Amino acid sequence: MRRRSELALALVTLGLASGCKKRDERPEEVPVPPRNAATLDVVNTELGTGLALRLGLAPTSVRWERVVVLDDERAVLLGRDNDVAYALRTNDRGRTWSSVSATVKSWASWGLASSGALALVSGAPERPKTAGPAVPKATPVTEVTWWYAAPGDKSLDGPRALLPGEGPLAGVTLPNAAGSPAFVEEGVSLLGGRSGKNAVLVNAKSLGSAAAPPNELDMQAFVPFPFGRPPKLLSVGKAGVELRSWPAPGEPLGVASAIPGLRPDATTLAQLSEGPSCEAGAFSYRRLAGAQPWVVGVSGERALAFKLPASEVARLSCAADAVVTETTVVDPSDPERKRRVPQLVRCGQDGRCSEPKAPPFAVWSEKHEREIWSVPTARGLVAVMRARTGTRWGLYLGQSNDGGTTFELPRTIGEGAESRSELAFGALLRFQSRLVLLLSADVGSTGRRGWYALASEDDGNNWGPP
């Protein structure tokens, strides 16, 4: 594995040095950084070498809250840094990237179409009329602006007013400062409501500033986030969790169908109203917590629900055909059999889940912080674990090639005892058998950090430049 990494780094160094030069000049050598270090062009990890993303796309302080692989070529990463929202996009399986961004208020949310078009909505909860405690989460948003970007746009178009506060939309707010715009008929649609009255779908055209007529709905308990692509409108009632095609402006609600096998409880609406846990292709998945966790999956063509193994870990990862959930098991290396360590369970859309024989990672014995990100592959799954205590840090890769039953020995991506040299996780994406890993690292002695990408063409077995 080390020889492969050294060969890849040599090829990258040669390629970077062979740009514009005179015929009789020898290629300029590009310095090779030490392990866990980076230059403006290359990062050197124990897993392999990666290439830098173009500077200025997004700060490394952005935490990518939504990572959506749309198809075999395209993916979108959505996140925020302070008062700026960012969307990082690739159309060539992670080889090159572009970004759009906008300054937003305290509440902001992205909408994403199958085409790759983006909509960003933002607003601030209204202030209470009398002095009192901090503004609660459920305080409504009364003024909302929005931006739009077509798949090839290099910037967001906007902002425009989405809730003008007059005319047909007088009195309409976002009651819980929650939701995401759905794309319908070359426009966007967002669920709002009037105090004590029916729900309302606020509609706007993607191009031009004129608002489309709103849809007056009934008093059902609707979910403010669209699920699936094309989008579905979910509601929770006595018949269960129901879904309909998201109506176009001026259209009535269509016939609802219940998600089979799922019986909602008192928390189901609130959990669904937090939005999808994970999105891949046409599917949106939501993990429903409880004594018996469930997963709900919705696409433009079908819906499904099945039980998950018991766990208190909320994170769910997915591909279009499977999900991965994190549980805990007794550490087999603990002689007292008291310590519990993370386990990863892969479940197909048929509800069949793997039965792992051992944990994917060897965890530190001392108390530490830990996070795990994973993605299902055709062979099993690949996961990245970050561990940290004090200034000591470690980033590790775990992998199963037999459906999640057994795991290869975990591999080190990087580890060290100084926070300044830390390699930080950004995102893990799957394009069929191709995986892309985004990391951030300090750029030499420049005092700044940059994004870098590594790729694997064989489900995570070998890694190198993208």
Topology of this protein?
Blueprint: H1 2-17, E1 37-38, E2 42-44, E3 49-52, E4 63-69, E5 75-81, E6 84-90, E7 98-103, E8 107-112, E9 118-125, E10 141-149, E11 157-161, E12 182-184, E13 187-193, E14 199-205, E15 211-216, E16 221-222, E17 232-237, E18 240-245, E19 257-258, H2 268-272, E20 278-280, E21 283-288, E22 294-298, E23 303-307, E24 316-319, E25 322-330, E26 340-348, E27 369-376, E28 381-389, E29 392-400, E30 411-416, E31 424-431, E32 434-442, E33 449-456
Antiparallel strand pairs: 1-2, 2-3, 3-33, 4-5, 5-6, 6-7, 8-9, 9-10, 10-11, 12-13, 13-14, 14-15, 16-17, 17-18, 18-19, 20-21, 21-22, 22-23, 24-25, 25-26, 27-28, 28-29, 29-30, 31-32, 32-33
Structure description:
The chain has two domains: 234 residues, no CATH class; 116 residues, no CATH class. The longest helix has 16 residues. It is mainly β and 466 residues long. 43% of the residues are buried. The strands form eight sheets. A six-stranded antiparallel β-sheet has the order 1-2-3-33-32-31. It contains two helices and 33 strands. A hairpin with a 7-residue loop joins strand 10 and strand 11.
